[in-house]
Design goal:
It contains 4 helices and 6 strands; from the N terminus they run E-E-E-H-E-E-H-H-H-E. By secondary structure, it is α+β, with helices and mostly antiparallel strands. It has 2 domains: about 30 residues, no CATH class; about 120 residues, DD-peptidase/beta-lactamase superfamily (Beta-lactamase, 3-Layer(aba) Sandwich). The strands form 3 sheets. Strands 1-2 form a two-stranded antiparallel sheet. A two-stranded antiparallel ribbon has the order 3-6. A two-stranded antiparallel sheet has the order 4-5. Helix 3 packs across helix 4. The longest helix has 15 residues. Keywords: Carboxypeptidase, Cell shape, Cell wall biogenesis/degradation, Hydrolase, Peptidoglycan synthesis, Protease, Signal.
Length: about 160
Amino acid sequence: MTPPAIDAASYVLMDYTTGQVLAAGNADERRNPASLTKLMTGLVIDHALDQHKIGLDDVVTVGKDAWAQGNPVFKGSSLMFLKPGDRVTVRDLSRGIIIDSGNDACVAMADYVAGSQANFVKLMNEKSAQPGPAEHPFRNGTRAGCAGAVHHRRRFWR
């Protein structure tokens, strides 16, 4: 079977059930993580929900580090436009991450789930199938400010 013509720098098409790679192009190339970081953020949040450490109806108070206007790292990025002191449910912040790709929502949830962004990054790296020494670990829960970070995406296929 001839792989389809896909206009992308790299891609992988897999069978969800079997894990078999159906088509791939430059699959082993290291690439900027882009929104894969937000997917991993969502997985860590989902795990915290499954473990009953947090609930969808929990109310999160937004801290200054998640303030869209006050954080230069967020300039030009996707946001929910949260402000310090805003009170938002885990459900709405999760939607803000997955639907809006909100970097400010990622920071608010990282602080809520793990107490700090640094602790949340540790959870992300534990969850990411234990990258080898040549892999680049996650640096934050948003990808904002990750210029130069590259990931080997094959590890996310597991």
